[in-house]
UniProtKB/TrEMBL annotation, chain A:
<dbReference type="InterPro" id="IPR003439">
    <property type="entry name" value="ABC_transporter-like_ATP-bd"/>
</dbReference>
<protein>
    <submittedName>
        <fullName>ABC transporter ATP-binding protein</fullName>
    </submittedName>
</protein>
<dbReference type="GO" id="GO:0005524">
    <property type="term" value="F:ATP binding"/>
</dbReference>
<dbReference type="InterPro" id="IPR027417">
    <property type="entry name" value="P-loop_NTPase"/>
</dbReference>
<feature type="compositionally biased region" description="Basic and acidic residues">
    <location>
        <begin position="256"/>
        <end position="267"/>
    </location>
</feature>
<dbReference type="Pfam" id="PF00005">
    <property type="entry name" value="ABC_tran"/>
</dbReference>
<dbReference type="InterPro" id="IPR003593">
    <property type="entry name" value="AAA+_ATPase"/>
</dbReference>
<dbReference type="GO" id="GO:0016887">
    <property type="term" value="F:ATP hydrolysis activity"/>
</dbReference>
<dbReference type="InterPro" id="IPR050166">
    <property type="entry name" value="ABC_transporter_ATP-bind"/>
</dbReference>
Automatic annotation (TrEMBL), chain B:
<feature type="domain" description="ABC transmembrane type-1">
    <location>
        <begin position="72"/>
        <end position="252"/>
    </location>
</feature>
<keyword id="KW-0813">Transport</keyword>
<feature type="transmembrane region" description="Helical">
    <location>
        <begin position="136"/>
        <end position="157"/>
    </location>
</feature>
<keyword id="KW-0812">Transmembrane</keyword>
<feature type="transmembrane region" description="Helical">
    <location>
        <begin position="205"/>
        <end position="224"/>
    </location>
</feature>
<protein>
    <submittedName>
        <fullName>ABC transporter permease</fullName>
    </submittedName>
</protein>
<keyword id="KW-1003">Cell membrane</keyword>
<comment type="similarity">
    <text>Belongs to the binding-protein-dependent transport system permease family.</text>
</comment>
<feature type="transmembrane region" description="Helical">
    <location>
        <begin position="178"/>
        <end position="199"/>
    </location>
</feature>
Length: 285, 271
């Protein structure tokens, strides 16, 4: 049985000012198995964050169903830990206090929670920083803390919304490698939102590609890469490059472009200069 | 650091402290010098404005007769009680306002309306309700401080990033514990500002209320001295009030700020 099961998720917002209804998520269904790493990829504004917020319990869905461990999601819960792009660490808590926070909220006594917290700090390479405050850490270290803080609760699924988008490119590579190592070691179930194709392929077992709004699942791509992974070998792997190219094509220009290309490959359309209108019309026939 | 002076950048900790203290005192020394010169040059009557030595003399008299301590003690007691009441009511009320958009929408206009009226304007009603004396003065201190503190606390809660609240909720924080675990520490930078502003209002409210409703205290003493044209006593007590305020700020608020907001890297702009 899958850990996370999303069926026909549909989400509408009512714009507070104009009163118009905005469809953030059209019709999305997919599932994440226990110990699986699944990314969701799609053009900006297609509703990736919305899907994650519904799974986290921060937002209510309009229709459809979201179940984690067989139970429908109604509110935030430590079973669904979230790693935020903005880190969202508690500035008034030390590094140790941040990691132990969830355990403390659930009434785990200090004597039991400290060793657990230390163990997860060690897992993310933050041992020795227990007494520091978050603002004394670099951006990369802050997000390691964000990951440790979630994993310490041993959630059913870890939700990550573009967690590495606000660190520099070099640090991002390092964090991605460390995340695959952690995944390798602990096998958490991960649902990861990104718009970085390389990142999605490098990290994931499967990638869910959303179309632009109103979003539907365009394709679910299985990543044919062995674990453990590191950037050096993955970048030289032809399977990596194939998958990246395929996903990039899926994303480029959304649906119309993808179909145009499919037609071009099947030799039905002259590839020289097809106006988009004709390509669309062709796609509908 | 609140007090970085050009001279404070080199040397050891002790000499840095010393020079910081000197820089702090310098404007006051200059003010005193200007005072001496002006009174000397204009030969203004003492009942209009006293010379600094007269004030020092008055201060010595008040000290040795023990009057100073009676009045300062009476005032401090009222301030402490009023401030404790304001902290115990204003901060929780502000957190409540900040954590619900509807409650805030309902109370915010009332709160802003009340800030202008806070303190002094309530003295007539306070004396009608509570009589002339202790209770009316403490009520005024509380009232003067309450609105500024509640309003700033509300702002502080409202500026806590949504993601922080979500992070806490998704780690299983029960709703009731959100207040102490997230809203209170998260709003602390603004709460400190509210305490600063509110304490200022509180002291002013105290002086005004004591003029009308008390038979001891610094405000009462100033008022009494005016009847006897004792400008030296008036100025002496005005200086005492200013010094008490500075001590509150530097001995209570600044360390509180250093140990929390600054330590956590949350320091906002403060006056
Ligand atoms: N609270 C809200 N109220 C109204 N509309 C919203 C709200 N949140 C999101 N939307 C709308 O829903 C759509 C999907 O937003 P969402 O943030 O989920 O996209 P996204 O795929 O995460 O985009 P990005 O890649 O830029 O992060 C957008 O058009 C957005 O304007
Ligand atoms: Mg997003």
């Amino acid at each position: 049985m899958s850990t996370l099961e999303i069926k026909n998720l549909h989400k509408e917002y009512v714009d507070a000012y104009t009163g118009e209804t905005v469809t953030a998520v059209g019709d999305v269904s997919f599932s994440v198995d226990r110990g699986e790493f699944v990314s969701i990829l799609g053009p900006s504004g297609c509703g990736k964050t919305t899907v994650l917020n519904v799974v986290a319990g921060f937002d209510k869905l309009t229709s459809g169903s979201v179940e984690v461990g067989g139970k429908p999601v109604t509110a935030p819960s430590p079973e669904r830990g979230v790693v935020f792009q903005s880190f969202a660490l508690f500035p008034w808590k030390t590094v140790l206090g941040n990691v132990a926070f969830g355990l403390r909220m659930r009434g785990v006594p200090r004597r039991e929670r400290e060793p657990v917290a230390r163990q997860y700090l060690e897992l993310v390479g933050l041992e020795g920083f227990e007494r520091k405050f978050p603002h004394e850490l670099s951006g990369g270290m802050q997000q390691r803390l964000g990951v440790a803080r979630v994993l310490a609760n041993e959630p059913e699924v870890m939700l990550m919304d573009e967690p590495f988008a606000s660190v520099d490119a070099q640090t991002r590579r390092k964090l991605q490698e460390d995340l695959t190592d952690i995944f390798q070691a602990k096998r958490p179930t991960v649902f990861f939102v990104t718009h970085d194709v390389d990142e999605a392929v490098f990290l994931s077992d499967r990638v869910v590609v959303l179309s632009s709004r109103p979003s539907t699942v365009a394709e679910i791509v299985t990543v044919p890469l062995e674990r453990p992974r590191n950037w050096r070998s993955v970048l030289e792997n032809p399977d990596f490059r194939h998958t990246v190219t395929h996903l990039t094509d899926l994303l480029a220009g959304g649906r119309a472009h993808g179909e145009e290309q499919a037609e071009r490959l099947s030799g039905r359309v002259d590839s020289s200069s097809e106006p988009p209108v004709r390509a669309d019309a062709g796609g509908e026939s | 650091m609140a007090l970085t002076s050009p001279a404070g950048r080199r040397g050891g900790k002790l000499s840095r402290r010393l020079s910081a203290a000197l820089w702090f005192l310098l404007p006051f020394v200059l003010l005193a010098a200007v005072w001496v010169v002006i009174v000397e040059v204009t030969e203004v009557e003492m009942r209009i404005f006293p010379q600094i030595t007269d004030v020092a003399g008055a201060f010595g008299e008040l000290w040795s007769s023990g009057e100073l301590f009676t009045h300062v003690g009476a005032s401090l007691r009222r301030v402490v009680l009023g401030v404790i009441a304001a902290i115990l009511t204003g901060i929780p009320f502000g957190i409540l306002l900040g954590s619900s958009r509807w409650v805030a929408a309902f109370f915010a206009p009332l709160l802003r309306f009340s800030v202008a009226l806070a303190g002094i304007a309530w003295i007539p009603l306070a004396t009608l309700w509570l009589g002339y004396g202790e209770r009316a003065v403490i009520f005024i201190v509380w009232n003067a401080m309450f609105f500024a503190l509640a309003y700033n606390t509300m702002l502080g809660v409202q500026r806590i990033p949504t993601q922080l609240l979500r992070a806490a909720r998704s780690m299983g924080t029960p709703r009731a514990r959100m207040f102490t675990e997230v809203l209170l520490p998260g709003a602390l930078p603004n709460i400190v500002t509210g305490l600063r502003v509110g304490l200022g209002y509180g002291w002013r409210g105290l002086v005004a209320a004591e003029i009308i409703a008390a038979s001891a205290g610094v405000g009462y003493s100033i008022f009494l001295a005016q009847k006897f044209f004792r400008t030296d006593v008036i100025i002496a007590f005005m200086i005492v009030i200013g010094v008490l305020w500075l001590i509150t700020d530097r001995a209570v608020l600044a360390p509180l700020e250093r140990r929390t907001v600054e330590r956590w890297g949350m320091k906002a702009v403060t006056a």
